[in-house]
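Reminder to self: tokens first, then the designed residues, so the page reads top to bottom the way the pipeline ran.
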């Protein structure tokens, strides 16, 4: 549970004993967050049991690519991952449209993982490695100061553009 001064989170009200076979999607919403000129759309899929799953619309695509899938998902069981993906993948294509499908797929995986009590990676084939190499980008930074700071705080690969 969150501290008294924090805002309540949807997860604070989730039933801990989900019944996956009775789970149904009741809503799909988006929120756009960002900083320093960057904007990212977050997808939230809600269910009748109080569970919510989250994903991100990729490649700075419009939130509308995710929202147009809502009518195809309402009333469905989010644990039927393969069937739902086959239902929505036709709206993905190669460009920005794929961003909506990707965000919804991430949210569905998150939901199914919560319903079954396992991390989403388990649903995608299981754990493959203990560590993942990450990179940090330092765009438009002429002095190299942010680049050096990134290395100092633990990033092991830094792109300087």
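Designed residues (161 positions):
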């Amino acid at each position: 549970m969150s501290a008294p001064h924090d805002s309540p989170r949807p997860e604070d009200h989730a039933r801990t004993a989900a019944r996956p076979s009775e789970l149904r999607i009741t809503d799909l919403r988006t929120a756009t967050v960002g900083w320093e000129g960057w904007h990212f759309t977050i997808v939230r899929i809600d269910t009748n049991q109080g569970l919510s799953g989250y994903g991100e619309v990729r490649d700075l695509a419009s939130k509308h690519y995710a929202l147009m899938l809502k009518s195809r998902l309402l009333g469905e069981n989010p644990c039927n991952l393969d069937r739902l993906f086959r239902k929505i993948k036709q709206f993905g294509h190669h460009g920005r449209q794929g961003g909506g499908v990707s965000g919804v797929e991430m949210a569905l995986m998150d939901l199914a993982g919560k319903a079954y009590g396992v991390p989403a990676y388990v649903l995608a084939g299981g754990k493959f490695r203990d560590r993942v190499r990450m990179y940090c980008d330092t765009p438009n930074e002429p002095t190299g100061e942010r680049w050096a700071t990134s290395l100092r705080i633990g990033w092991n690969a830094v792109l300087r553009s």
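The first strand starts at residue 25 and ends at 35.
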